[in-house]
Each structure stands twice: as structure tokens, then as C-alpha cells.
Design brief:
It is a single chain. The chain is built from 3 helices and 5 strands. It is α/β, with parallel strands linked by helices. The protein has one domain. The protein has a 3-stranded parallel beta sheet, with helices on one face. Strands 1-3 form a two-stranded parallel sheet. The longest helix is centred in the first third of the chain and has 14 residues. About 15% of the residues are buried.
């Protein structure tokens, strides 16, 4: 389980190192605190989808981020995920 509460706010280089480290383990990864919907992009999906993520968790801390949450929900649905594999 990864408890970083805002992995997407770190540098891109840090995120690449993070993913490479967890790829070495070859085990399922639970990013428990979730990806911040404000920052999540297709680029992030491409990077993190190389990990074994059972449930994609997204942080949605305020109604101010509603549009971002809807954008991410639509994106993940188009990638083939249903509500059982994506949480907010």
C-alpha cells in the first residue's frame, strides 16, 4: 500500500522512479490515498497503468473539483473501467 497523499504533485522524474521501483516488485499496488483528480491526465494513466493496480482510487476532496472528477470518471470509463475498479 502506498500512502503518499499527493503523488501527482511530485516531479515527473520522481513519479517515474516510483513506478519503476514498484514494477520491480511485480505485485499488486494499492495507491490508498488516491490520485488527485485536479492533476490526473492521460500521461499519468499511461505511466501508472504499467503497475498492477486493482482499484484506481481518486481524491475528490471538495465539490470545487466536481468537473475534474467527472472528467476523470469519463476518462476511466472510456478506458474500460467500471465503478467496481474506480473509486472517488
Amino acid at each position: 500500500m502506498v500512502g503518499d497523499n499527493n503523488i501527482l504533485a511530485t516531479s515527473w522524474e520522481h513519479q517515474i522512479r516510483f513506478v519503476k521501483q514498484y514494477q520491480k516488485y511485480g505485485r499488486e499496488v494499492d495507491i490508498n490515498s488516491g490520485f488527485d483528480v485536479r492533476f490526473f491526465t492521460e500521461k499519468h494513466y499511461e505511466l501508472y497503468s504499467t503497475l498492477k493496480i486493482k482499484t484506481w482510487r481518486f481524491a475528490f476532496d471538495s465539490l470545487d473539483y466536481r468537473e475534474d472528477a467527472l472528467r476523470v470518471a469519463d476518462f476511466m470509463r472510456k478506458k474500460g473501467f467500471d465503478r467496481h475498479k474506480v473509486t472517488f
